[in-house]
Structure formats: C-alpha cells, structure tokens
Structure prediction request, 559 residues.
Amino acid sequence: MKKTHEFDVCIVGSGVGGGPVAYELAKAGYKVGVLEKGKWFTESDFFKDEQLGRHRVFRSQFRDERHTLEEPNGDGSWSRDTTAQFWGGNIVGGASNFMSGYFHRLKPEDFRLVSEYGEIEGANTVDWPISYDELEPYYTKVEQLVGVSGRVVQHPHLEPRSTKDFPFPPTAEHPVAQRFDLACRKLKLHPLPMARAILSVPFNSRMSCEYSGYCGSYGCHSGAKGSSRAALLDDAVAGGNCKVITQAKVYRLNSDENGRVSSVDYFDKDGASVRVRAKVFVVACYAIESARLLLSSKGHKHPDGIGNNRGQVGKNLHCCAGGTGHGVFKLNKLTDPEAKQLKIRGPFFNRALQDWYVIDDRSVSDKPIKGGTLDFVFDPPSPTAEAAGLKWEGDNLLWGTPLKQKIKSHFTQSKDFKFEVFCDWLTNDECYVSLDPDERDKWDQPVAKVRAGFHPHDEKVAQYLVDRGVEVMKAMGADEAWGNVFTSPTSNLVAGGCRFGNDPDTSVLDRNCRVHDCDNLYVTDGSFMPNGGSVTPTLTIYANAFRVADKILEEMSQL
Prediction:
C-alpha cells in the first residue's frame, strides 16, 4: 500500500516562491507540507572556500536529471544539447541560498509595457493584470521580514514607496564606491546605493554579514542572506504547523473527475512512490520545472497537462537579457593611499545606475524605449580559477617565469571591478518549455526541453547599456575597460512559462496565480511573470508569493 501524508496545503518547492506561502499559512494555523527535492543544509554547511560553490551536494546531478537546451545558431538552424546549467540550488531554500541578493523593485512601467511603449513586432509583450500599487505593500513586507539593507536616494526613476527608507542600514561599502560616486556625478548621473537582501545588523536570530567576499554563488555562513530557509522556513517549521519533507521528487499532480488536484505523488530518497493529499496545492519549483510538472500531470479534464487546455503551459519563458563588463585599474599608476584602498577586501561595491531605465536617445530609437539597470559589483574570491585562466597568452601556453610574472601582476598590481547589465528578455514564440520526447531522468520521467530563442531588440538595448557601463569605468580611471552582451540564456533568473493574466486563452494563471482550469492549484514561483523587468526578479517573486498567500488565506477561510 502506498505511503500517504495529508495536509491542509501542499507546496512543491521551498524557494522564494514557496517559502512565503508556507510561512503565512503555517502562521495562520494551517497544516502545511513542503516537498523539497534536495536536502536540508544550514549555516554550518556553508563555509568560506572558493571550491564550495562547485560542490555537487548542493545541485542536481547531470547524470540523474538534466534539461535539453535548444539555441539558435544564427542561420535559421538550432543547436541541441543536454545541460545541467538551470539547476540553481537543489536544497531547502533553493537558489535563494546562493543569490547575490540585489533587491531592486520593478517600476510601475514594468507592469504596463505595452501601454507605455507599444507593441514590438515578434514579441509577445503584455500588460500585467495587476498594478505596481497592488504589489507595493508586499515589497515593503519582504524588505522588513526577509531583511533588505540599503538607503533610498532620490533619482529620476525611483519607484513610489510607502516607506521612506529600507528597514536596515546599508551594508559596509568598499572605498571604490566613493570613486564611483564622484565619476558618476561628473557625468551627471545618479549613483544609487544597492539594496541587498543581506542583513547589516543582526535580526530575528540571524547574524549580520561577515564580509568574507564569498556571497554570490555561495551559501551564507552567518545567515545574513535572506534565503527562503533562513528568513522564513526555519521559523515556519519551529512553529509546529509546517513540515518540510526533503529528498521528495514530485513527479505528478493527480486530478479528479472535476479537474481539481486531489493529490501529488513523489519519489522518496529510496525511490518509493509516496502520495500527499491536501485541500490546496501550490507549485513553486522554478519556472522550467513548474512547467514540466504541469505538462506531466495529465488527467481526465487535463489531457495535455494541468492548465494546458489552451496550450499555454511552458510558453513565454524568459531569461534575463543584458551583459557584463570590467574595469581594470593598474595600482602602480595610483597614489599609495589610492592603491591601498582598492586592495581592501570584504565590503561590497554596492552601487547601481538606473539613469537608462528608460532610454530616450534618438540614436537608438525614434521614441523612448525600455532600458535597464547596471549593477557594479565584485566577483567572489576565486584565486585558483583565476590563476588557471592566466596560463594562456592567446593560443600560447605560458610556463616558468612568464607565467609567474603574469600571476604576480594579476594579484598584486591591478584590481578588477565588474558591472552587470539587466534588461528585459522579450517573450517570443521561440522561447518556451516542453517535454522532451526522448530524454528521461533517473526516475524515467520526461525531462524539460528548453528552446531559448531571443528577440534582436534585446541585443540593441543590452549593447547600449554595456557601452554606458564602459564609459563609467573609464570615467573612474580604469586603465582597461570592456564589456560584452550575451544572448544565451542565463543559468539563473529564468521566469515565465505559466504567465498570469485575465484571458485564459493567452495565460495559464489568473491575476491571483490560480490555474484557470483548476481552482485549488496555484503557481507562485517566477513562472507567473509576463516579463522580468530590468532588474533581478527575486524580490518581485518574493513579494508576489506573499500577495498570493493572502489570497489563499481568503480562500481557505471559505472551505
């Protein structure tokens, strides 16, 4: 006989889409079960080791489960390969354990791209079914509860706020921030302190940042980073109403003759199938996998998968368009105090520019177009990888004295600063998730196939912003400055695939993220987003999950 569990609410996934729902419903007294494919790790498992980010224990394994990725070759054909690049974090809290924590809000115009900027041929852009004002209280809630440190400053694209400032003071800043501010003001730009989901002071049994430099791509040793586990699930479980079942690979949502979800099935760590029954179900297992799960869950009322009666599940996937750039400062060209300052390790660069969030430049377009954000950051310390990359000079392999001199120069005679560009990846007909007809995972389930077509408009916007970033680096005094645009899908920050909207013919979810054809199933990860905005979407996913949690609470009170 199949083992079973029963809860009031069953949530698939424990990241930023699932954590808020579990937290709020458990706090309200409901019995909540969270099914997580990975294991439970805590702060003691994360330590300051440059190799830690590569440890296989935190990620899904390619040999066990992978995705199929199709990308355009530029000549009308498509490449096809298997990849594990989209697995961001196979542990309780998901990829939020390894995020950098850049927590920008979307702007009001991000909710109405078509109304503001018009349609773009070849893009499936739509306005959101909700407004910024509806989400604003939940942005505020995340900033306080998850913990966002920063300082609000006035600038041309500052979004409306119900609070004057962030609830926690800014994290410690590297001296290069002063150099950045001076250069930007000379360029008549508006340098912004970066809002980070990293505690600058202790809060709610979590320690403040230790400024080790091991942040983005690394788990947080102090608990300062606002992962779903550290900020929400630890408390939810301690309250007694929330149970997190780890190593639970959910493979099917079962539906009854009326089309409602009646249970979910998962494989436990031993490969045995276990069933979970509940009144309400929430899917939040990352955009690609959420679409895969719905497509895999066929039933009497859902012959093509739950939510897919109109062929919309998996459609309108989007990544994060943009690029990266660098500025290298030769320390021997600076004064001793300046060089000493730039050698400091630990504090964050913590600066951003949103002067081009809307681009009004006739050299680019005859009308204003949506632009993006530039975040100026440090890469985590990775001396082994950096040294390995220095062994080449063009096509020639260096060794002996030339290699030693190059390594010495890299680590002691120069300093490299980085910027990242974020802009919209326009949804289009060639970017979607489907089930691969041939490739299967270790549980003999079809894997997700990701087709990652991009719109040429994205390249144009990204190149404009990268060029502006290079100009800023040069104004700061960088001896070398360069940047690149990328069109390949990012390994993280993927969203869409279960778009929300008012029209069931063009969306999977209603405005409250409930599946149109299944009234007890919600999707609360980034799948709901019609577009990602020109920032990292994590804060918005968090905020929307808290918003949907309130809607579920209203629904539960009527049951």
